[in-house]
């Protein structure tokens, strides 16, 4: 991670908030900290995520500032709305600084056993594909059902994730399994278009096929089962809508998500 | 020398045959009536630099065989194009 | 590992010669390309370094008057009447005396592109092939750009930004295909710039995009940017909205519509914005969007190299912005070619075609040489890469 970026975010946050870098995406960098941004008695036993959109020097400052503010605000607003949806698991929004491009979120997930890394879906599936584990274990099936249900809930409420990959799904250990959370809503939007939902599903299917190819067929089937359950529990209206989404999903598959070009 | 011909056939009409009449002017040039620049572009001020090259001539001023062939085809193409345009107008007329 | 010498050169030569014919838009290009037969190509992944020698690269562009775009009929007519001249010129420059003996393969653009112009060139290709008894190969125009870019810049595995009048795609190679990661949802960036140039009625020579670039450079007020719609949607982008808006601004400017507060001071009626300002703002916005989607693709595939191909790749400002983004990503690099290869040309078709040919691809029946207006980059099986 560039020292420049660390310096910038540190100067925004001030000296009392130590940060550790976690990941760097195309648009934002993610840090973790144990200091709460505004609660005086929070203590330091909990972790929080700071998602920072650094300025990009290649673009004109007025575009850069406008984008940073718009996207930070947009993501925050979306997250706060999603948090209120019953049954949908997303990180809790703690603070938002749109001018500096900073969002504070609750820290989700944990370390997987045996050094298998952070508990996102990607690492989880890799763990179960490794020695000593059974990739078709019932835990995997149920976890993927749970993930599918989360996506189903998201779509049923007319939202689209925009970047559904196995790195953007985090798992939290619960009594007899794993709870699935969706994270990173930087590319998300409200949408009631079947096209957007179909594309969401397609992006995830392709992501699973490319990173977990050996078991992708089963995994994608289980994801779809969980997804469908949400719609099916909504009576005949749900059944109709489910058919529309799945049909469009098939079309997007055939089309390869991308349209034919001219010239 | 043999001249090129063309035949237009469709199930519902008599076939139409196009032949070359070397004496007629349109079979003696490579600058066809229907294969010039579009009027639209010329009206916008275009200077046409895309004309086909003149047919090659021998020292005596006669067209070379290939030159003649090109000129013949130009006239034939004009006839075909006019015929097809007419057919299109008929079809449009039928639709209206 | 790949054997690029699967098919040997004709007549026991130790080099291949390909003739490339390109005419998918308003540029007609003819190129003659030579690849030496090298042992290291028998078992490697070196298709980005063919030691290609360009024996001829000629081009003629069909240019319309200011305010006019190029239409299929006249473009096809241009190609039809210029192709023999250019082919003859190219053969002469390449010192090809006997095409039947000297040329291994004739490569032509199969698509994508405008139907009638593509057709004109395909007919020329077929005719030469039958006349000289030389095999034919149909090439995807986009793959031509990519392969030429790789060969010229020697970039091994960059993310490719392909930007031209007809295409806007972000491409990365994976498992025998050039996969499209991001693209335009409506019009291509070159098309957007060309149409704005028409609204401004600036000359189309040497190219409308070049003239917009020069106007943008002359903008006196680069600190203030006009606010334009910024329409990146995930990995894709859309440009019809920004075009519609800037077109309306330009029209208001020409008409002196004082009600437009962006352009005219509401109190004094003084003009605040010039044509140069419009061009500058348009470029800054469009290019920022392109750089953003390229960066997303780079993050996805973990790459820090970018190759820009296609006519709009000639734009210096775009190259600058891309370079800045790359530097901020683990010291990455931008690769670009100059106008000989950025802009549509015949050599790029020969390069991609020759790679296809060397791997055993060839037209077996003339029916296969039908051109196609729609031809996605990922439809091509990239046999010549690992």
UniProtKB/TrEMBL annotation, chain A:
Stored Pfam families: Kdo
Gene: TDEL0G00670
Keyword set, alphabetical order: Activator, ATP-binding, Chromosome, Cytoplasm, Hydrolase, Kinase, Nucleotide-binding, Nucleus, Phosphoprotein, Serine/threonine-protein kinase, Telomere, Transcription, Transcription regulation, Transferase, tRNA processing
BP terms from Gene Ontology: positive regulation of transcription by RNA polymerase II; telomere maintenance via recombination; tRNA processing; tRNA threonylcarbamoyladenosine metabolic process
Name of this chain's protein: EKC/KEOPS complex subunit BUD32
GO cellular component: chromosome, telomeric region; cytosol; EKC/KEOPS complex; nucleus
Similarity comment text for this entry: Belongs to the protein kinase superfamily. BUD32 family.
Catalytic activity reported: L-seryl-[protein] + ATP = O-phospho-L-seryl-[protein] + ADP + H(+); L-threonyl-[protein] + ATP = O-phospho-L-threonyl-[protein] + ADP + H(+)
Compartments where located: Chromosome, Telomere; Cytoplasm; Nucleus
Species name: Torulaspora delbrueckii (Yeast)
Domain Protein kinase: start-end pairs: 16-263
EC number: 2.7.11.1
Keyword Cytoplasm: yes
Subunit relationships: Component of the EKC/KEOPS complex composed of at least BUD32, CGI121, GON7, KAE1 and PCC1; the whole complex dimerizes.
Top-level division of the source organism's lineage: Eukaryota
GO-annotated molecular function: ATP binding; ATP hydrolysis activity; protein serine/threonine kinase activity
Automatic annotation (TrEMBL), chain B:
Composition skew (Polar residues), residue ranges: 28-37
Gene Ontology molecular function terms on file: chromatin DNA binding
Signal peptide: none
Principal subcellular localization: nucleus
Entry GO CC: chromatin; chromosome, telomeric region; EKC/KEOPS complex; nucleus
One Pfam family per UniProt: Gon7
Compartment(s) of residence: Chromosome, Telomere; Nucleus
Residues covered by region (Disordered): 28-61
BP-aspect Gene Ontology terms: cell wall mannoprotein biosynthetic process; positive regulation of transcription by RNA polymerase II; telomere maintenance via recombination; tRNA processing
Function: Component of the EKC/KEOPS complex that is required for the formation of a threonylcarbamoyl group on adenosine at position 37 (t(6)A37) in tRNAs that read codons beginning with adenine. The complex is probably involved in the transfer of the threonylcarbamoyl moiety of threonylcarbamoyl-AMP (TC-AMP) to the N6 group of A37. GON7 likely plays a supporting role to the catalytic subunit KAE1 in the complex. The EKC/KEOPS complex also promotes both telomere uncapping and telomere elongation. The complex is required for efficient recruitment of transcriptional coactivators.
This protein's name: EKC/KEOPS complex subunit GON7
UniProtKB/TrEMBL annotation, chain C:
Tagged with keyword tRNA processing: yes
GO function term, MF aspect, one: chromatin DNA binding
One Pfam family, short name: TsaD
Cofactor comment: Binds 1 divalent metal cation per subunit.
Cellular component GO terms held in the UniProt record: chromatin; cytoplasm; EKC/KEOPS complex; nucleus
Class in the EC hierarchy, top level: transferase
Keyword Flavoprotein set for record: no
Required cofactor names: a divalent metal cation
Positions of the Gcp-like domain: 54-350
GO process terms (BP): positive regulation of transcription by RNA polymerase II; telomere maintenance via recombination; tRNA threonylcarbamoyladenosine modification
Residue numbers binding a divalent metal cation: 141, 145, 162, 344
Keywords per UniProt: Acyltransferase, Cytoplasm, Metal-binding, Nucleus, Transferase, tRNA processing
Record-linked SUPFAM superfamilies: Actin-like ATPase domain
Enzyme Commission designation: 2.3.1.234
Localization annotation: Cytoplasm; Nucleus
Top-level division of the source organism's lineage: Eukaryota
Binding site for substrate: 162-166, 194, 209, 213, 315
InterPro entries for this protein: ATPase_NBD, Gcp-like_dom, KAE1/TsaD, Kae1_archaea_euk
Recorded catalytic activity of this chain's protein: L-threonylcarbamoyladenylate + adenosine(37) in tRNA = N(6)-L-threonylcarbamoyladenosine(37) in tRNA + AMP + H(+)
Family note: Belongs to the KAE1 / TsaD family.
Protein name stated in the entry: N(6)-L-threonylcarbamoyladenine synthase
Organism (species): Torulaspora delbrueckii (Yeast)
Origin organism lineage: Eukaryota, Fungi, Dikarya, Ascomycota, Saccharomycotina
